[in-house]
From TrEMBL:
Domain annotation Response regulatory: ranges: 2-116
Any one biological process term the GO annotation gives: regulation of DNA-templated transcription
Name this polypeptide is given: Response regulator transcription factor
Pfam families: Response_reg (PF00072), Trans_reg_C (PF00486)
Alphabetically ordered keywords of this record: DNA-binding, Phosphoprotein, Transcription, Transcription regulation, Two-component regulatory system
Gene3D superfamilies reported in the protein's UniProt record: 3.40.50.2300, 6.10.250.690, Winged helix-like DNA-binding domain superfamily/Winged helix DNA-binding domain (1.10.10.10)
GO MF annotation terms: phosphorelay response regulator activity; transcription cis-regulatory region binding
PANTHER family (UniProt xref): OMPR SUBFAMILY, REGULATOR OF RPOS
Organism: Euhalothece natronophila Z-M001
Annotated positions of the 4-aspartylphosphate modification: D51
InterPro entries, per database record: CheY-like_superfamily, OmpR/PhoB-type_DNA-bd, Sig_transdc_resp-reg_C-effctor, Sig_transdc_resp-reg_receiver, WalR-like, WH-like_DNA-bd_sf
Source taxonomy: Bacteria, Bacillati, Cyanobacteriota, Cyanophyceae, Oscillatoriophycideae
Domain spans labelled OmpR/PhoB-type: 124-223
């Protein structure tokens, strides 16, 4: 799951990004409204955390612009304003939820999960592919009841495949899904993570070609 944080308080943005990253989300950040708009209109995100008071383009205007372009990505507004009028303005602009600063990271995480469940009904369901199972609620992966010890990137990579059946993903698409825009590595990194994930699956008893290479195109789960 990929989340965009648009927040000009760099310290707060880093705290939120670190906390969400620990929960196996892929996180990207922007420090002003225009940068946030460029990212939100160019890439797919599962959730946007949006501050209202932003330089260059305020959060209300940014949210209105997104909705006018038929962008339905859920938006959680973050703001120091806590009056009823301010909340109504934010929600009327197209936001899905509203969180007043200062807030606890636990509450932010809970609201994040709630919004993701609301907009993606299978988010909390166990994902299965033959004897392979991924539990998003517990962030656990098992093969025939053998628990796999995956890195956060390996976990997100496997989740991406499981949520998309036999869809083929190119290396570029995998980079876009799993790495933050500002720290995107080389395509060889994808090969290394695919190799590591295959080895761990094989060690648990899975077929060595469970994640198969479609030459010239990318990777996908092998049909059962």
């Amino acid at each position: 799951m990929k989340i965009l944080i648009i927040e000009d308080d760099e310290r707060l943005s880093e705290l939120i990004a670190e906390d969400l990253g620990d929960q196996n989300y892929t996180v990207e950040t922007a420090q002003d409204g225009l940068s946030g708009w460029e990212l939100a209109s160019s890439f797919h995100y599962d959730l946007i955390l949006l501050d209202i008071m932003l330089p260059k383009l305020d959060g209300i205007s940014l949210c209105q612009r997104l909705r006018s372009q038929e962008n339905t990505t859920p938006v959680l507004m973050l703001t120091a304003r806590d009056t009823t009028t301010d909340k109504v303005v934010g929600l009327d602009a197209g936001a899905d939820d509203y969180l007043v600063k200062p807030f606890e990271l636990q509450e932010l995480a809970a609201r994040t999960r709630a919004l993701l469940r609301r907009h993606q009904t299978n988010y909390s369901s166990t994902l299965k592919w033959g004897d392979l199972e991924l539990d998003p609620n517990r962030c656990e992966v098992t093969y025939k009841d053998t628990l796999l010890s995956l890195t956060p990137k390996e976990y997100r990579l496997l989740e991406m495949f499981l949520r998309n059946g036999t869809r083929v993903f190119s290396r570029t698409q995998i980079l876009d899904h799993l790495w933050a825009f500002e720290s995107c590595p080389e395509e060889d990194t994808v090969r290394a993570h695919i190799k590591g994930l295959r080895q761990k699956l094989k060690s648990a008893g899975a077929p060595p070609d469970l994640i198969e290479t479609v030459y010239g195109l990318g990777y996908r789960l092998k049909e059962i």
